[in-house]
Design goal:
It is a single chain. This protein has 338 residues and is α+β, with helices and mostly antiparallel strands. Among the domains are: 80 residues; 58 residues, no CATH class; 80 residues, Immunoglobulin-like (Sandwich), CATH 2.60.40. The protein is built from eleven helices and six strands. Strands 1, 2, 3, 4, 5 and 6 form a six-stranded antiparallel β-sheet that branches. A hairpin with a 6-residue loop joins strand 2 and strand 3. The two termini are 57 Å apart.
Length: 338
């Protein structure tokens, strides 16, 4: 090792990451898949040597770097850099600090060495005050220079943050977890600009916090951290193995239809088959995922409004139905097989 720090915290590519790059992890929920791909893209960006001689990793990088995923990673990296002044400005601040410390030390020595004469001497007072005044003028000049440098830092920071804010606003999101990342970025950047959180932004954070992390992505947990504990204490923590399913209240008829979003899923619970009735024609894939996160069934849709499939051959238990909802959005539904 030559002492170089590999980022972000990894020194090689794992077998899982190779499967991820090759698209061989279909058992993962969309939010978890997107987040895992983001981490891999960040890792390859920080360590391009990992792609040397590996066509799978190179192809993965090329296919992702120009997408929203790459844009969000760039925003994150830019924000991290904005928090600290550049090397030149920091060197000037350090030099100011050293000079000021030296002048203050001279003033302290001067004060200690002053011997009060037995008889009042205006000349003595004048010499002492002139010497101390000269030193204090030097301190004041350094303070003014430091204030100017800090002002430049603030102005540069604000300009960079406004640029990042505009970049974030221009991202056209395609999924729930991308929309969550964009909304969270906006709140974070405005906080860096020392702007108060608006009611609209607070509502966005609350909406994200109410989602399941498996569907909404890791931003769900970060959004919850911004809210008081009384608002989040009853929300399930998937990292602790708690079940999380986003459901909407619905009227149930004699066939136990469940109206959720833009689709009816029935009967639920079911013993032999499951029906999915969309309110409008949709494209994409319907997937059935077991409680362990494994894909057990899928079907591709091409502008279809109705799907039916047998469930009697699957083990009894709780499953998740992943549905395409249009405009690239996908939702998870809980279904029970009996």
């Amino acid at each position: 090792m030559n002492g170089c720090r590999l980022g972000p915290g990894f020194t090689d590519i794992s077998d899982f990451e190779l499967k991820l790059a090759g698209g061989n992890v279909s058992y993962m929920t969309p939010g978890a898949l997107w987040y895992s791909e983001r981490l891999l893209l960040k890792k390859l960006t920080a360590n391009p040597s990992f792609m040397s001689g590996n066509a799978v990793l190179q192809q993965f990088y090329n296919s992702k770097i120009g997408t929203n995923m790459g844009a969000f990673n760039q925003i994150e990296a830019t924000l991290a850099g904005i928090l600290l002044p550049n090397a030149t400005t920091q060197a000037s601040l350090d030099a100011n600090y050293d000079q000021k410390a030296a002048l203050l030390a001279q003033i302290a020595v001067l004060d200690e060495q002053v011997q009060v004469p037995q008889a009042y001497s205006p000349d003595f007072d004048l010499l002492y005050l002139n010497a101390k005044n000269n030193l204090m003028q030097g301190v004041q000049a350094i303070d003014l220079n430091e204030a100017a440098l800090n002002g430049q830092i603030v102005q540069a920071k604000q300009a960079q943050l406004n640029s990042v804010l505009a970049t974030n606003a221009a991202i056209a999101v395609n999924t729930v977890y991308e929309a969550n990342q964009k909304d969270y970025n906006e709140v974070l950047i405005r906080a860096y600009l020392e702007l108060p959180m608006t009611t609209v932004e607070l509502d966005k954070i609350r909406q994200i916090a109410q989602q399941c992390e498996s569907g909404g992505g890791p931003i769900v947990k970060l959004a919850r951290a911004l809210l008081p504990g009384c608002e989040t204490e009853n929300l399930p923590d998937e990292s602790e193995g708690e079940l999380c399913v986003r459901e909407k209240a619905a009227e149930h008829d004699s066939h136990e239809h469940e109206l959720v979003g833009t689709a009816q899923v029935y009967p639920n619970p079911t013993t032999e088959s499951l029906n999915i009735q969309f309110n409008e024609a949709v494209e994409g894939s319907v997937k059935l995922i077991n409680a362990s996160g494994e894909l057990v069934w899928s079907q591709k849709l091409e502008k279809e409004t109705f799907v039916q499939f047998d469930t009697k051959d699957y083990p009894k238990g709780i499953y998740f139905l992943e549905l395409p909802m249009g405009n690239g959005f996908r939702e998870l539904r809980k279904v029970v097989l009996q």
